[in-house]
Write a structure and sequence with these properties.
257 residues; TIM Barrel; binds fe (ii) ion; alpha/beta; globular
């Protein structure tokens, strides 16, 4: 089994993540404690607002590999903010996937599900990209209607849950959704989404344990497929458990009314 942290802001002074080399090294020592073998360094990339030139990324990633001499393998990547121009940027070679392979981490606005989301994912897939949706359990529209996520997964999109969501760090709604998605095989990978060495740290092992409790079959699938995603190899997700999903969703609706 290989433990991978697919989502982190460990590159310092790039975004709202790590503030210094020292903080980054501290974060990585936490990852070591958590027995993480690979960590993806995925700073925010927001088209027209917060773009990182490829050369700049390279330089910063090299600074990181020079500074860090520990056992966690560092994997390059980006956390791309949903934008209709993502396919164009990919064609122009401005953006890249995890480990410079085909899986690409993409986040949605927290409170919206843009109407062009499925189209952008489709266009990317035509270009050979496999989208990974970052922390869907934190998106308000998906919380209210998990069908949005189900449709994306049916289209071939993978979903990454935040470790903190499973532990209640982002509130009850995100926790409920994270649990629901894990129980119904609607999650394919875990990330700490670490921003610092304090409250939003790269701690991940508790969340792995929680995931195992909630869905042992999915836990095994993740352990067996984690590394393939880093290598850019195809994976075959477990089928979504739709009936149970429907019931839980109805229960959720019923509770609210
Ligand atoms: Fe993030």
């Amino acid at each position: 089994m290989t433990r991978i942290d697919f989502h982190s802001h460990i590159l310092w002074n790039v975004d709202d993540g790590s503030l210094s080399k020292e903080m980054t090294l501290d974060m990585l020592s936490i990852s070591e404690e958590e027995r993480v073998e690979y960590i993806c360094a995925t700073p925010h990339y927001i088209i027209n607002e917060q773009e990182i030139a490829l050369e700049d990324y390279k330089e910063r990633f090299e600074l990181l590999t020079e500074a860090y001499k520990g056992n966690v393998n560092l994997i390059p990547g980006l956390e791309l903010y949903m934008h209709p121009k993502l396919p164009e940027y990919f064609k122009q070679g401005k953006i890249f996937g995890l480990n410079k392979e085909k899986y690409m981490l993409i986040e949605l606005p927290m409170r919206d599900f843009p109407i062009y989301t499925r189209d952008v994912f489709y266009e990317l897939s035509i270009l050979g990209v496999k989208p990974i949706l970052a922390h869907p359990e934190r998106n308000l529209k998906i919380q209210q209607s998990p069908t949005f996520l189900m449709e994306l997964i049916d289209d071939g999109v993978l979903a990454q849950v935040n470790a903190g969501s499973l532990l209640g760090v982002y509130g009850q709604a995100a926790k409920d959704s994270a649990e629901l998605f894990v129980k119904n095989n609607m999650i394919h990978l875990l990330g700490s989404d670490a921003h610092n060495n304090q409250r939003r740290s790269p701690r991940i092992s508790k969340a792995y344990r929680r995931l195992k409790e909630l869905n042992p079959e999915l836990y095994t699938w993740i352990n067996n497929n984690n590394e393939s995603i880093i290598k850019g190899e195809d994976v075959h997700p477990l089928a979504i458990i739709r009936q149970q999903h429907k019931e839980s969703f109805l229960k959720k609706l019923f509770k609210k009314s």
